[in-house]
Design goal:
The complex is a heterodimer of chains A (about 400) and B (about 800). Chain A has 16 helices and seven strands. With about 400 residues, chain A is of the alpha/beta class. With about 800 residues, chain B is an alpha/beta fold. In chain B, the strands form seven sheets. A seven-stranded mixed sheet of chain B has the order 1-11-18-17-14-16-15, with helices on both faces. A seven-stranded parallel sheet of chain B has the order 6-7-5-8-9-4-10, sandwiched between helices. In chain B, strands 27, 28, 29, 30, 31 and 32 form a six-stranded antiparallel sheet that branches. In chain B, α4 (about 65-75) runs parallel beside α5 and α23 packs across α26 (about 765-775). Classes of the chains: A alpha/beta (about 400), B alpha/beta (about 800). The interface of A and B includes residues 8, 10, 16, 131 and 161 of A.
Chain lengths: ~400, ~800
């Protein structure tokens, strides 16, 4: 084993497998990678304490670094055209007619019954890697919730791995104090990482149920249903600018996710904290965007108003969620629009036919069948044509 | 359909009475049968299980099965070393199932070296479980397990069957998602323990260290049950691999049929040139004779191409004899799983009488009772011969093994010295779990799985050794020491960068084109086979004839980047045979012993010994067209394919001009090959690796003089070469002793290896060459202890 020193050199020299390529900022990213070899000239300027006014929160496992902010709603929701949060709620209330399906039915998750963003914890982690394996640490956990007329943001930071248990304990306390959890892709990532770390630190036991069973509104899944095919992707940054109309300036020097681990490792090794600033800002922006996005999506699903492709997506989503009556109504409404192409019309009629059949709505079934008969191509199969005529006349009787 | 099937004695008698067959037979030996010893079901078994076994007609077990079951039930780590087909599966299944019937929350992990074997063993286990009527949920878990099924396996699987690679990269790093398994892990079953040798075995030993570490974290302490084919050192091997004291059970209670072993040497057809008849044709003659007379026969050949050739020939013989050609089937890697299952079924049902296989079958796939086995070409080790022979004559009656020698030196030596074969002890399985490069790789993976804490030992390494490795990784910023713990602090997923096996690359698929217009109409693509990366270079180059199941396909186009070969069904009178060229290029020299070739006199040393980084490239340069049956050469073509390159470390020895002129260049090159063989043998022993882990090549470089290379035959290397360099002089001395102490006169496969030209003075030149190299080098005496 004394060979180890020589090995140190040899392992360097003999590149056995291609090393992971250093991540590069995405093209066009204005983020400038700091020189990680440089040490802060004046240590006190580069310290973690100089970066944010942390409060040290006591836990049974020691202290955790927590940066807490209380923000007026206007910092989250655009107040330029009045309180959009308020208007969303009005829209939601207005949409509550007897026939409208519940939010949990629309989202396809019965555990979200009674969901209200004011009872939810919004959570977003920054981690040391993208894999879900046991060795990926969540080193910064951003949490947000409504409190009074404000939004509270807490960023819990793992100052070094010895404070991990304190960090996890504090975050689990926040999570367990609210009945709902909201994340962006947390079902497959954030919670998976947290769960692993709870196991490794032997803290899972008490929190197992809250990690596995807590009602969880994953905004990514829901955004995909709504915006699939409308925007090039449904990343949070894209939705911020397209759906929420957020000022792109907020992200102008955003740190690319792929660089996040390297910046944290640099801090761990040197104690030089300024490079953490972009990560803290990035995480804060993410959590706040999630708060706004959740409100927006709830309103959208309960009261689907918008451009043709958006409402169409929502209607199809309702159909997949076994809400054919709701879907049929939306398809029927869309057919009344004046901006439809012939192709749109045909596809909408097809969708309406399916939804109306499943819903047992003979009237809409006839509407769809009659509509389709008018636009049928010449080579349509005879049996299909016969069925359409049957449906078309059935409702008339 | 057949006339009465003759007995083995009658068959061998007839062969000996037929002059042109008899002249090829060099010896016939008989291994006497032995009676079975039986025992009642051990009392520790759950009543439901014994009842189920009784219901399926099993009233008692073999004595070794009873011993193994009792030992395992008593919580002892148990290793079974009994011949092929002695009922190993029951020794795994009975204690595990019995325990799971008592403890439904318990979990068991079964490891098999290959995916195919896992699938196969799954069916057997599943059948046994069904017979008990118990709801013991059993799953295979490998790269093919769909993502949505994985959750189910993790949550529900009481028994999980997997392979070492998957345990290493897919389960251990995710142990936090496998809580039920690791909290309740009571059994780890390892089949085919002898397959885990050399570097692969050293890796597995480290995976087991990690497995035990994770199990301990979650509060479980599983009992290991393992099985191995006959090797010389089963206890040592198992204890190194598992780092546990084990109970060895090696007295088989299974009955053994009598076995006639017939040694066949193809006749010399050209005395002047010493050319022998094709061993494949001779094997064909024996196989054909056996199958025609209704004797279930398996023939092992040493390459996939030969599987296909022999299948084609045997089917032609059957047609000529007005028999169904389909009773002969090929069986080799590259056949699609459904195809393999069909053949296995045919063998069990008796619809298939003859099967031609590569060694794919060696690994214990259940194919029912066969009577005869033809081993065409020495498979490289005595253990393999017995394992192949064990495929025939499973339990009773009499059986036959026919060994047909190729013209290669090793084959010839064995066929001419049958007693060498019967007298030799089987090979040792060697591993070095403490190989530094391998340890460092796995400590990384282990740290990813769980942080290391001060005072912790990794496997059986001492605390100081463990700490040294951890500090090394911390110095390289892969781990971060915080408080008393080392944490993984890197964005990568280390298991993905550590491969347990050296050969690894995506397979090529073989796609049949529409035979009419030769273009693949969209949606009509038919995948007919898969070929591993390396073989693709020799079998799927453009214009190659690809043989499959007795049919021929010509490769029309090879989409190398996408790993696809497009082939068209053809009916040629030839097959193709690709040849490749191995080239070693020195990239950087890290150290040198002795002066360069130019100052031999100044240093007094007669050769340069050096080590460093090399690039080993294997390039397919062309192919021959060879006519079926006559095997004459009917054409030639060039191949333009990328080289298969491996960047690794090597130790080399360069013979300088002075020695060349004294001995003669050709003699030096020839002797160097012999020295290389002997040096390879002693180095493999010293490194405790498998023969295939060390490459050996002689290159007659014009500028520098002939060179002998020994290199780590694994991408990146695992640290053999620098150690071989340090040990070069004692190893050369050991190699010399190996040659001089060998009981043979002029060199044999055990010492000099390759074919020797007796005119070259047998052992003399290699021995004097070593003497010349060692002269004045102040070499210490060879360390005999490491050799014997």
């Amino acid at each position: 084993m004394s060979e180890i020193r020589r090995l140190t050199g040899r392992l360097q020299h003999l590149k056995t497998r291609p090393a992971e390529p250093e991540p590069l900022p995405e093209a066009g990213s204005p983020f400038v990678l700091p020189d990680l070899s440089a040490r802060g000239a004046a240590p006190e300027l580069g310290s973690l304490e100089a970066l944010r006014p942390w409060s040290m929160v006591e836990t049974p496992y020691g202290k955790a670094h927590v940066f807490r902010e209380q923000l007026p709603l206007g910092a989250v929701f655009d107040e330029g055209d009045g309180l959009s949060l308020y208007r969303t709620r009005q829209r939601v209330v207005a949409a509550r007619d007897a026939e409208a399906p519940s939010l949990e039915a629309l989202l396809g998750d019965s555990r979200l019954k009674g969901f209200d963003a004011r009872d939810a914890l919004f959570l977003d982690i920054e981690a040391t890697g993208l894999s879900h394996g046991a060795g990926t640490h969540a080193f910064l956990i951003g949490c947000a919730w409504f409190e009074g007329g404000e939004v509270v943001v807490e960023q819990v930071f793992m100052q070094d791995p010895t404070t991990e248990m304190a960090v996890l304990h504090h975050v689990m306390g926040l999570l367990e104090s609210r009945p709902f959890l909201v994340s962006f892709n947390g079902k497959s990532y954030d919670l998976s990482v947290l769960e692993s770390r709870l196991v490794v630190t032997r803290l899972l036991g008490r929190h197992e149920a809250s990690i596995k069973l807590r009602p969880h509104f994953d905004l990514l899944h829901v955004s995909r249903q709504a915006y699939k095919g409308i925007f090039p992707n449904t990343r949070l940054q894209t939705l911020e600018q397209t759906v929420l109309g957020l000022d792109p300036e907020a992200r102008v020097d955003d740190v690319p996710g792929s660089l996040v681990p390297a910046l944290y490792f640099h801090y761990l090794r040197t104690g030089h904290a300024p490079h953490l600033d972009p990560i803290l800002r990035h995480n804060r922006t993410d959590v706040l965007s999630m708060v706004a996005l959740a409100e927006h999506l709830v309103g959208l699903f309960l009261s689907p108003i918008g451009e043709l492709p958006l409402v169409w997506n929502l209607a199809r989503s309702a159909l997949r969620r076994r809400l054919p009556a709701h879907a049929a109504r939306l398809f029927a409404e869309l057919l009344l629009r004046s901006d439809l192409t012939d192709l749109d019309r045909r596809e909408l009629l097809d969708d309406l036919l399916t939804a109306a059949r499943r819903a047992g709505n003979l009237e809409l079934l006839a509407t769809a069948a009659i509509g389709l008969i008018e636009v049928l191509p010449a080579d349509t199969e005879a049996s299909y044509v016969r069925r359409l005529f049957r449906w078309a006349t059935h409702a008339r009787k | 359909m057949f006339e009465k099937t003759p007995t083995i004695t009658q068959l061998v008698g007839r062969w000996l009475d037929t002059p042109d067959i008899a002249e090829t037979i060099t010896a016939v030996r008989r291994v006497e049968p032995s009676e079975g010893t039986y025992a009642p079901f051990p009392g520790c078994l759950h009543g439901t299980l014994t009842a189920a076994l009784r219901a399926s007609g099993i009233e008692q077990v073999y004595s070794h099965q009873a011993e193994a079951i009792e030992s395992a039930c008593a919580g002892q780590h148990t290793v079974l070393v009994t011949p092929t087909a002695s009922g190993k599966s029951l020794c795994f299944h009975a204690p595990v199932l019995s325990d799971l019937l008592h403890n439904p929350h318990g979990r068991a992990l079964f490891l098999y070296p290959t995916k195919a074997l896992t699938q196969d063993q799954y069916s057997g286990l599943h059948e046994t479980i069904e017979r008990t009527g118990a709801d013991i949920r059993t799953f295979t878990f490998d790269g093919d397990t769909p993502a949505d099924a994985r959750l189910q396996v993790r949550e529900l699987g009481q028994i999980v069957l997997t392979n070492p690679d998957m345990l290493h990269a897919g389960i251990l790093p995710h142990h936090t998602k496998w809580l039920k398994l690791f909290r309740n892990l009571r059994w780890v079953v390892l089949d085919e323990l002898h397959a885990y040798k050399g570097v692969f075995g050293s890796h597995l030993a480290n995976v087991i260290r990690r497995l035990k570490r994770i199990a301990a974290f979650h509060g479980s302490n599983p009992t290991f049950i393992a099985a191995s084919a006959t090797i010389a050192n089963p206890r040592e091997h198992a204890e190194r691999l598992l780092e546990e004291k084990v109970t060895i059970i090696d007295r088989s209670g299974a009955p053994r049929s009598s076995r006639d072993v017939v040694f066949v040497n193809p006749p010399v057809v050209n005395k002047q040139l010493g050319i022998r008849a094709s061993y494949l044709h001779v094997a064909r003659r024996f196989a054909s004779d056996l199958v025609r007379q209704g004797v279930p026969t398996i023939t092992f050949v040493q390459s996939r191409l030969n599987v296909e050739l022999l299948v084609k020939y045997l089917r032609e013989d059957l047609v000529r004899n007005h028999q169904d050609p389909e009773i002969v089937q090929g069986y080799r890697g590259g056949y699609l799983p459904t195809h393999r299952r069909r053949i296995e079924q045919g063998l069990r049902s008796g619809a298939v009488l003859g099967v031609v296989a590569t060694n794919a079958l060696e690994l214990g796939i259940d194919i029912g009772d066969l009577t005869a086995c033809i081993i065409a070409g020495y498979p490289g080790s005595i253990a393999s011969v017995w394992q192949q022979a064990g495929r025939a004559g499973r339990r009773h009656g009499e059986s036959l093994a026919v060994y047909v020698a190729r013209s290669l030196a090793l084959d010839q030596y064995v066929v001419q010295n049958p007693d060498y074969f019967f007298g030799q002890t089987p090979e040792e399985a060697r591993i070095d779990p403490d190989n530094l490069v391998i340890v460092v790789d796995h400590v990384k993976c282990a740290a990813f799985e769980l942080p290391f804490t001060e005072g912790e030992r990794y496997g059986h390494l001492a605390v100081e050794q463990t700490t040294e490795v951890l500090d090394h990784l911390a110095a390289h910023r892969i781990l971060h020491k915080a408080g008393p713990q080392w944490h993984w602090m890197d964005r990568s997923y280390p298991a993905n960068h550590v491969s347990l096996r050296s050969v690894e690359s995506e397979n090529f698929t073989v796609i049949e084109l529409d035979p009419k217009d030769g273009r693949a109409p969209l949606g009509q693509n038919r995948i007919i086979a898969e070929v591993d990366f390396k073989s693709a270079h020799t079998t799927l180059h453009e214009h190659a004839i690809y043989n499959l199941d007795g049919d021929q396909y010509q490769v029309e186009r090879l989409d190398y980047d996408n790993h696809k070969a497009f082939v068209r069904r053809v009916d040629p009178d030839y097959f193709t045979y690709a040849h490749s060229k191995l080239k070693i290029t020195v990239i950087a020299e890290d150290g040198q012993l002795g002066g360069g070739p130019d100052d031999v006199n100044a240093s007094g040393r007669q050769a340069t010994i050096a080590h460093g980084e090399v690039l080993v490239s294997d390039k397919v340069v062309g192919f021959k067209k060879v006519r079926f049956d006559t095997h004459e050469n009917v054409g030639y073509g060039e191949v333009f394919l990328p080289e298969i390159e491996m960047h690794t470390s090597a130790m080399w020895l360069t013979v300088p001009e002075a020695v060349l002129s004294a001995f003669g260049r050709d003699r030096v090159v020839d002797a160097l090959r012999g020295v290389g063989q002997a040096l390879h043998t002693v180095s493999v022993l010293r490194m405790m690796c498998a023969s295939m882990d060390l490459g050996q090549a002689v290159d007659d470089v014009e500028e520098s003089g002939p060179r002998l290379y020994l290199y780590d035959n694994l991408p990146g290397g695992v640290g053999f070469a620098p150690r071989l360099f340090e040990l070069a002089l004692p190893l050369l001395a050991s190699a010399r002793s190996l040659i001089t102490d060998c009981g043979c006169n002029d060199g044999c496969p055990s010492c000099l290896g390759a074919a020797r030209n007796p005119d070259d003075g047998g052992k003399l030149t290699p021995v004097s060459l070593i003497a010349a190299i060692l002269k004045d080098a102040g070499a210490p005496l060879p360390d005999r202890g490491t050799l014997h």
